[in-house]
Amino acid sequence: MLAGHLQEKGGKYYAVLNCKHHVGKRFPKWVPTDLPVKKGNKRPAEKKLDEFRGLYNEYGEQISEIVEIVSPSIPEQSCTVVSRTGDMLFADYMLYWLSYKETEVDPVTFAGYCDSVENHIYPYFKELGLTLSQLEPKHLREFYKFERIGDPEHGKGRKKGTTVVRYHSNIHNALEVAAEDGLVGKNAAHKQRPKTDKFIGSFYLPEEALECIRLAGGTWLEIAVLFGLFYGLRRSEIVGLKWQNFDFERNLFTIAHTVTTYYRKGQTRVSYAKDKTKNKSSMRTLPLIPLFREKLLALKEQQKEHRRLFGNSYNRKYLGYIYVNEIGELIKPDYISSTFKKFLEKNGLRHIRFHDTRHSCASLLLRNGVSMKEIQAWLGIATMEPRRTFMHTWIWRSLC
Questions:
Q1: What pTM, to 2 d.p., does this model score?
Q2: What mean pLDDT is reported for the chain?
């Protein structure tokens, strides 16, 4: 009999079975019990789990095609467990796809998938009750429209085009898997990608950038502002900077480690560190200019003094990281964004997002005659296409 356990998702109990692919790699198979998470339902859910463990083989394939199970504590309620066929509800298939992707992507990406599927795609299509074989392109277009418009009466705000595109990406990916497995004849999401709002990032002019650097001097935000405006580093790259990646003899440093945060269900923000950047182009080595070298060496000595002063109270978990506070706690990416916003307001500086310091870096390089190819390498961008609109806007403004 298969090993398995109960898991709560979307306010309901699911049986999670420990299965494996035919090639040997293990994966969790999620089977809905259709029982809501509430007092008195835990034991019936456990009984369904035991029954499901005997209904599937080690490959997650249902031994009998359709089995009806009646909950002993709720005689009126019955549920039909259907194997993965075109008769499976599309909403339930999205949960299956989600469990499959958990072992395929990193935790940050998976957290984004969970938010899209569990909080938006699943509830909408579960209410419609459409099966995989019934799903048509028009249903997806209606869903995208619903997300863009929102539902103010029920407290649901409208979503940005880029957010809806993420939902579409998940749906398209899931239906591709369904098509490969022969569950559907074609991908209903094909050529249904919703339009996005054309976004043009803001940026600082040279005098604004210099004033921002001057005012940030001596604050905890100084490191972030300097690396953002001069090197165009992303938040995750700034927080991920380590002393071992700096060569003070050759005056070079390498961006090879990042720190991001995400929401894990049932927990607060979780930090995720990895020796990997956003893409291959993002792993790059840059020159360390004298101003940065002096500030970093001074910071290194300051951290030694903090370790001496705080002794056992100093957090040694993040030893080796550059961007830590007095007691050794790592400065989080979200802290940079929120503090930067308050910093601009306090000093009467024009509002831009922290990510716009990266845009500012690009515009300053362009102003000084640096080629697009060189800017691409400096910023660690895989392709310049997404940046061309921004660059052209800067050129237009510079001529006005």
A1: 0.68
A2: 84
